[in-house]
Amino acid sequence: xxxxxxxxxxxxxxxxxxxxxxxxxxxxxxxxxxxxxxxxxxxxxxxxxxxxxxxxxxxxxxxxxxxxxxxxxxxxxxxxxxxxxxxxxxxxxxxxxxxxxxxxxx
Length: 106
What we know:
It contains two helices and three strands, in the order H-H-E-E-E. By secondary structure, it is an alpha+beta fold. A three-stranded antiparallel sheet has the order 1-2-3, with no helix packed on it. The model has no long low-confidence stretch (mean pLDDT about 80).
């Protein structure tokens, strides 16, 4: 099980702070601490038969497996319909994404 924890954030320089900007805001801290999976499962197989040695690794993954979308921004904050969803949604706004990768080594 993996857990990420931000323990120190260097203060934002005064020139940016006066503009209301932060280099490492609460949102960015959330991406580091909460934006990664807490656990992973890995499978690997190795077959040795005389002069043949084969290793197979299979990777399966999914982002937004349940196909959840964030709430739609109000008309005042979505720039005329160009950005209907918030850019800081924890599960994005591109829908479900599944992938597989197989690696065979002989």
